[in-house]
Design goal:
Layout: H1 2-40, E1 43-44, E2 49-54, E3 60-65, E4 85-87, E5 94-98, E6 104-105, E7 122-124, E8 149-151, E9 158-160, E10 173-175, E11 180-182, H2 185-194, E12 200-202, E13 222-224, E14 232-233, E15 246-249, E16 256-257, E17 273-277, E18 297-301, E19 306-307, E20 321-323, E21 328-329, E22 344-346, E23 368-370, E24 377-379, E25 392-394, E26 399-402, E27 416-418, E28 423-429, E29 441-443, E30 448-452, E31 465-467, E32 488-490, E33 497-498, H3 502-507, E34 514-516, E35 521-524, E36 536-538, E37 543-544, E38 560-562, E39 584-586, E40 608-610, E41 632-634, E42 656-658, E43 665-667, E44 683-685, E45 690-693, H4 697-702, E46 728-732, E47 735-739, E48 748-750, E49 755-758, E50 772-774, E51 779-780, E52 796-798, E53 805-806, E54 820-822, E55 827-831, E56 851-853, H5 869-879, H6 903-909, H7 916-921, E57 924-928
Parallel strand pairs: 5-7, 7-8, 8-10, 9-11, 10-12, 12-13, 13-15, 14-16, 15-17, 17-18, 18-20, 19-21, 20-22, 22-23, 23-25, 24-26, 25-27, 26-28, 27-29, 28-30, 29-31, 31-32, 32-34, 33-35, 34-36, 35-37, 36-38, 38-39, 39-40, 40-41, 41-42, 42-44, 43-45, 44-48, 45-49, 48-50, 49-51, 50-52, 52-54, 53-55, ...
Antiparallel strand pairs: 1-6, 2-3, 4-5, 46-47, 47-57
Bound molecules: 2-acetamido-2-deoxy-beta-D-glucopyranose (6 copies).
Length: about 950
């Protein structure tokens, strides 16, 4: 029995030995096959670029072209010679595989032969596309126990980081940057506890969303946790890691609170790059920062820091990049910065004050100097152009003054110069910048300088962005044709006269995408512009007097066209093609004639049509129902003779409809073709037309955008975008107001000065987010519906000059937001209700109702049958408090036939623009309303 067992054991041992031997001898061949099958499991994509992030020489991102390393792998050659493969010399085992940026595309599934390469110590698959894998294969956590470097950054794996990764206890570096994967807190904690060798940990963009565990290993050299959603307090021990060189939390999270050590930093000898962006450093920067003697990069950007920049920062002699932008720092700029070796200094978007230190101009190592958007005073000094390496200088939006130094023209490396929005003065020749052969951005806008161009201006050859708004320029007509890549030109708010400068069409014929010549005195037509490349054209407020060129029809690049406030004549373009991508078409306040062409709908992407203040006639074509993207349609102050354009009812996005001051007529109250007419409408102005019949009940029932109730919940936003903000003029509280931008909670109905008759429908009480309601100067009869009391947002209510009778409903006392009320010139009777809001109005709100009594009218309710004498008192009141310029002779409402002052004008003397709208908008009162009838 014993023998048998021994024999069996021996056999087993022999078998095992044999097997091991076999495995060892087969292993080389198996590894080759495994590698080759791995190659074949993936395809090779077209060449691309991969970008890297380097901490050297301040932070740089650079890209290199991809290279398909597996392309030439073939079974007839030794796999140890294959590109990207490293073998152990003695055994021939594959120990390293570096296939980063090799254009590999496909899935790495659990049965992939990659996972047979169990001897791997280095594995780099970064910058390939394995998004087809569905999940992050667990096998990475255990297939090669000896793995010391694992780099899967930018490989598009998704899912969850396998927990087994915390068993790879030999890992020295782990790079999972830019993987949109989840790393569970438990795994993260084990990983930091168990991987005692770990020195480089990069998890940028990995979703961790937890606190940072304590007990980090002393070996950590590089820690990159940007965009991981860490929150809570960052443990101070991080700053005491004795070998830490890089701590990078870029694109952090305002819920991550960091307090920098006040006295001692354990990493003071080693830390080279400290980068925090978008976290909460509300305790600011301590003096102890100066202890970091090796620090080369200090970026504390958008970190909610207030307080001062410590003077001690000048002791950081190795510092090459300092970025403290987007905080609330409010000290001066410390002089000591001059002792550093800064290449990049960015202090923009703070509250820095005091004089600009002259020492900044002596920092000859500087390449980027960004101090824009602060409250800095003082003058610019000359940079030493023989030594300076300056490439980028921006001081826009400060309080700097004095002359612009001539020596800028000697800074040969300059590529961006932005001096806009300061108080610089003096006369400057544009030629001064001609020698700057790398200059791509030049901005001098909004100063007090007078810019001249003597003779033929030579623009710097690489110039792309030219901003010379408000530079007192008179002439800019002759420019040499060097700057052939010019992209943005802003010459607005100057005194340029004559025709559109010829050079613009020549220099920018292949590149010009933004041209702003608004607010000049330019005459003539629109010829010679590079229509085929322009994206945004703003020529508003000039003296242009040509007609609209038919080229507008054929441009597929133009998106925003603003020609308002000119003398343009002719007709609207009749386009037979629909290549246009036009979004904004603004020709308000011109002399455009003729009718609205039905082919205008070939501009099918239009969001915004402004035709206000022209001489357009005829009707609104029914084809306008095709403008599915239309949000704003302003046809006010033309000569359109038509019935109400029912074709617009179904437009899903229409928010603003202005038809005022035309010759519209007829009933609106016909049956509607749409179940939900005007679903997005929130501003409708039909005033000063000849509409008749009853108020359109069907619409009042369906104005959903005026019923959403809780407008305070949404964040205020404005219509339009960075380049074009929607503007419109409305009569609000009796005064014509130009809304320079339209906030999304502005809601108004103006049906005044028409021939509407019948009752005010009860439904009006459903429009609970309505802010302005004007149905004055009509022939409305019946009572004021008590449902109006439900309009709790209402800021202005004008029902004046109708034939409303009965009592003023008590419910009106609950219009708590209402700052303007006009019920005058009706047939209202009885006592004016007392209480809350109604007590704040003066007698002008009620005058001209012969049977109304009580405060604030002087007519007492007990001698109810009082005669007309007291009325004169009320009318006298109208004449107080405003000047004749403000007085407008309107029309009588029967009681005082001679003239009644525009009651509303009273308000102009003491405007009450108290509501949210007024606050939000910074209203501009353009002119007083002139009402005639
Ligand atoms: C295999 O690769 C080697 C070197 O990588 C090359 O010299 C040889 O031509 C290749 N053979 C084939 C059949 O592609
Ligand atoms: C790997 O598994 C997938 C399914 O999970 C299968 O379709 C494929 O054929 C397998 N590949 C190999 C080489 O076994
Ligand atoms: C990972 O590989 C990329 C190259 O694709 C490299 O830039 C990066 O530094 C590597 N990560 C580590 C931790 O070495
Ligand atoms: C691949 O990653 C390793 C470390 O993970 C790194 O040392 C190597 O430089 C990277 N390869 C390339 C080409 O960047
Ligand atoms: C930690 O590493 C050891 C090897 O050093 C391993 O045996 C253990 O399973 C690991 N623990 C965890 C929780 O991953
Ligand atoms: C209007 O546009 C259509 C194409 O959308 C075209 O066929 C027609 O000729 C155009 N009409 C005029 C008058 O140009």
């Amino acid at each position: 029995m014993m023998k048998l067992i021994t024999c069996f054991l021996a056999a087993t041992v022999l078998l095992i030995v044999l097997q091991n031997h076999l495995v060892a001898s087969l292993s080389r061949n198996l590894q080759k096959i495994a590698l080759f099958q791995f190659k074949q499991s993936l395809t090779i994509s077209a060449p691309t670029y991969c970008s890297y992030y380097s901490y050297l020489d301040s932070i740089n991102v650079y890209s290199i072209p991809s290279h398909p390393r597996t392309m030439n792998w073939n079974m007839s050659s030794d796999y140890c010679t294959w590109e990207g493969v490293s073998c152990e010399h003695a055994t021939g085992d594959v120990v390293g595989l570096d296939l980063s940026c090799s254009q590999l595309v496909g899935a790495i599934l659990p049965n992939n032969t990659l996972f047979q390469l169990s001897h791997l110590r280095f594995l780099n698959l970064s910058w390939n596309d394995f998004s087809l894998s569905n999940q992050f294969p667990q096998e990475f956590g255990f297939f090669a126990k000896g793995l010391s470097h694992l780099n899967l950054s930018n490989t598009q794996f998704s899912g969850t980081v396998p927990s087994d990764i915390s068993h790879l206890y030999k890992l020295v570096s782990l790079d999972l940057s830019e993987l949109r994967v989840k790393l569970e807190y438990q795994v993260f904690r084990l990983l930091l506890q168990n991987l005692t060798q770990l020195s480089v940990l990069k998890l940028r963009s990995v979703d961790i969303s937890s606190v940072l565990p304590m007990n980090l290993f002393a070996n950590l050299r590089v820690l990159d946790l940007g965009g991981t959603g860490l929150y809570g307090a960052l443990p101070e021990e991080v700053f005491h890691l004795p070998n830490l060189e890089v701590l990078d939390i870029n694109n952090g999270n305002i819920n991550l609170n960091v307090i920098l050590p006040k006295v001692k930093w354990g990493c003071s000898g080693s830390l080279q790059h400290l980068i925090f962006v978008g976290i909460n450093l509300s305790r600011g920067m301590p003096d102890s920062i100066a202890l970091l003697e090796s620090l080369a990069t200090l970026v504390l950007c958008n970190c909610n820091m207030s307080g001062s920049i410590p003077k001690s920062i000048g002791n950081l002699r190795r510092l090459t990049k300092l970025d403290l932008s987007l905080n609330h720092l409010n000290s001066q700029i410390p002089n000591g910065l001059a002792y550093t070796n800064l290449r990049v200094l960015d202090l923009s978007y703070n509250n820095l004050s005091g004089l600009l230190p002259t020492s900044l101009f002596e920092l000859t190592s500087l390449k980027t100097l960004e101090i824009s958007c602060n409250g800095l005073k003082g003058q610019l000094h000359e940079f030493d152009s023989s030594k300076s390496q300056l490439e980028h200088f921006s001081c826009k939006n400060n309080l700097l003054y004095g002359q612009i130094p001539q020596l800028f023209s000697g800074l040969v490396n300059l590529s961006k110069l932005d001096l806009s929005s300061n108080n610089f003065s003096g006369i400057l020749d544009i030629e001064m910048f001609s020698p700057l052969k790398y200059l791509s951005t030049l901005s001098l806008s909004y100063n007090n300088i007078s810019l001249r161009s003597t003779g033929m201006a030579t623009l710097p050859p690489k110039l792309k962005y030219l901003y010379l708004s408000s530079c007192n320029m008179k002439d800019f007509s002759r420019v040499s044709k060097d700057a052939e890549n010019i992209k943005y030109v802003d010459l607005s708010y100057n005194q340029i006269d004559g025709v559109i400068p010829h050079w613009i069409g020549l220099v920018g014929r292949d590149s010009l995408s933004y041209l702003n010549l608004s607010h000049n005195s330019i005459q003539g037509g629109l010829e010679g512009l590079p229509w085929n490349v322009l994206n945004i054209l703003d020529l508003r407020s000039n003296l242009l007097n040509g007609s609209l060129p038919s080229l507008i029809c054929n441009t597929s690049s133009l998106e925003i066209l603003i020609l308002s406030y000119n003398n343009l004549s002719g007709v609207l373009p009749i386009c037979s093609t629909d290549v246009s991508r036009l979004i904004v078409f603004d020709v308000r306040m011109n002399n455009i004639q003729g009718s609205l062409p039905s082919n205008l709908t070939n501009f099918r992407y239009l969001n915004s049509i402004h035709l206000h203040g022209n001489k357009l006639e005829g009707r609104i074509p029914s084809s306008f129902a095709k403008f599915v993207f239309l949000e704003v349609f302003d046809l006010g102050s033309n000569q359109i003779t038509d019935t109400f354009p029912q074709c617009l009812e179904a437009l899903p996005n229409l928010q603003v409809l202005v038809l005022k001051s035309n010759k519209f007529y007829g009933l609106i109250n016909k049956s509607s073709s749409s179940d939900h007419p005007f679903p997005s409408l929130r501003i409708i102005d039909l005033s000063n037309n000849e509409f008749s019949g009853s108020l359109p009940a069907m619409y009042f029932k369906n104005f959903n955008a005026m019923m959403d109730g809780e407008p305070y919940k949404i964040r205020p936003s404005y219509m339009g975008d960075d380049y074009y903000s929607e503007s419109i003029s409305l009569v609000i509280k009796g005064v014509e107001i130009e809304f320079l931008r339209i906030i999304n909670v502005l809601t108004t109905i103006d049906f005044s000065n028409n021939n509407f008759e019948g009752k005010i429908v009860d439904y009006i009480g459903n429009l609970v987010s309505l802010r302005f309601l004007n149905i004055s100067h009509n022939y409305l009869t019946g009572h004021i519906p008590s449902s109006i009391g439900k309009l709790s947002m209402l800021e202005s209510l004008d029902l004046s000059s109708n034939q409303l009778d009965g009592d003023i409903p008590q419910q009106l006392t609950s219009l708590y937001s209402c700052a303007f009320l006009n019920l005058s010139c009706n047939l209202l009777r009885g006592r004016i209700p007392k209480g809350a809001q109604l007590d704040t109005f003066e007698n002008s709100s009620y005058a001209g109702n012969s049977e109304l009594c009580g405060h604030p009218l002087s007519r007492k309710c007990d001698n109810y049958d009082g005669t007309h004498e007291e009325k004169d008192e009320d009318d006298d009141y109208f004449l107080t408090g405003f000047t004749w310029e403000a007085v407008v002779i309107g029309y009588g409402c029967g009681v005082v036939p001679a003239f009644i002052i525009g009651y509303l004008m009273l308000l102009a003397g003491k405007p009450k623009f108290a509501g949210i709208i007024a606050k939000e908008l910074g209203l501009k009162i353009k002119r007083l309303d002139i009402r005639m009838r």
